[in-house]
């Protein structure tokens, strides 16, 4: 078996296509993607590429959003994004390969020190293949050139952030023990997520990028879906379990709990509580009650 055995499998499969090709892999590097496009016969009119673009993953170098430009230049190919994608699947008409290999040099054996990977041939009509393709069809969003540029820009900002100790790759690395919102103005989150940050200072922008990195929201969402995703992350925070369970939460008690954890000063704990409150006011249906220590309560305030 040659070092590039996996690539030979992929290339030989693609060469047999007559109608449609589907390439499904979380991580895709542009050199291997171009080689895959070149392997597809010119008579094939439709090539669908399904992948995921995560800012920290792009910053870590495991995937290239620039494949959108290659797809556009090819003319037959479109890119779709599925944020929770883990499957690796390569389809040529009614035949396919399934297994562990991404479309990267190390996974396909096109570079030295290749990974040990596995691809097994099966039919496109296999129930599990049909299930995965149906799930992708139901959830994937377009991976446009414009979105690719936004992701690359945000990845570059994350790489240049001296206050970010390391690039966190969701699903690959352990997440921090505690994430607390950093951005004081939550209205900036969607603007930056959507590539509209020209008038935001560099220090503030770095904080927004760090928040978006830890939140790990998939790209391409409209503002309402984005807000719902943020709210889900907020309600999953241990610090907000009281609000989730009882419909109310005492801000002074939350500050005391943060302070008792030992990794924040009194000033930092107060700032954290104020920031969380600002996020809840912006994203959630809550109101604030100044009875003794301030409380956050679920639901609109009765007047």
TrEMBL record:
This is Phospholipase D Active site motif-containing protein. It comes from the Bacteria. One of its GO terms (biological process) is phosphorus metabolic process. It comes from Actinacidiphila guanduensis. Residues 85-107 form the PLD phosphodiesterase domain. GO terms for molecular function: catalytic activity. Gene3D superfamilies: Endonuclease Chain A (3.30.870.10). InterPro entries: PLD-like_cat (IPR059166), PLipase_D/transphosphatidylase (IPR001736).
């Amino acid at each position: 078996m040659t070092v590039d055995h996996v690539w030979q499998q992929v290339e030989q499969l693609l060469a047999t296509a007559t109608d449609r090709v589907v390439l499904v892999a979380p991580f895709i590097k542009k050199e291997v993607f171009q080689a895959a496009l070149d392997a597809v016969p010119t008579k094939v009119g439709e090539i669908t590429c399904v992948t995921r673009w995560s800012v920290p993953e792009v910053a870590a170098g495991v995937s290239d959003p620039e494949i959108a430009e290659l797809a556009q230049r090819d003319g037959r190919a479109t890119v779709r994004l599925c944020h929770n994608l883990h499957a690796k699947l390569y389809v040529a008409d009614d035949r396919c390969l399934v297994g562990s290999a991404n479309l990267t040099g190390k996974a396909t054996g096109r570079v030295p020190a290749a990974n040990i990977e596995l691809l097994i041939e099966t039919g496109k009509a296999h129930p599990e293949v049909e299930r995965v393709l149906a799930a992708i069809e139901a959830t994937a969003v377009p991976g446009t050139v414009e979105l690719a540029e936004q992701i690359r820009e945000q990845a570059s900002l994350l790489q240049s952030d001296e206050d970010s100790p390391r690039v966190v790759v969701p699903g690959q690395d352990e997440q921090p023990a505690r994430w607390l919102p950093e951005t004081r103005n939550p209205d900036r989150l969607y603007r930056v997520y959507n590539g509209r940050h020209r008038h935001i200072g560099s220090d503030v922008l770095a904080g927004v990028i760090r928040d978006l990195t830890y939140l790990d929201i998939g790209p391409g969402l409209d503002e309402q879906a984005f807000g719902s995703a943020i709210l889900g992350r907020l309600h999953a925070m241990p610090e907000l379990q009281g609000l989730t369970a009882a419909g109310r939460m005492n801000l002074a008690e939350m500050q005391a709990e943060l302070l008792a954890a030992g990794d924040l000063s009194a000033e930092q704990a107060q700032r954290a509580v104020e920031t969380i409150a600002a996020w809840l006011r912006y994203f959630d249906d809550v109101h604030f009650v100044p009875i003794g220590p301030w409380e956050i309560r679920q639901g609109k305030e009765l007047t």
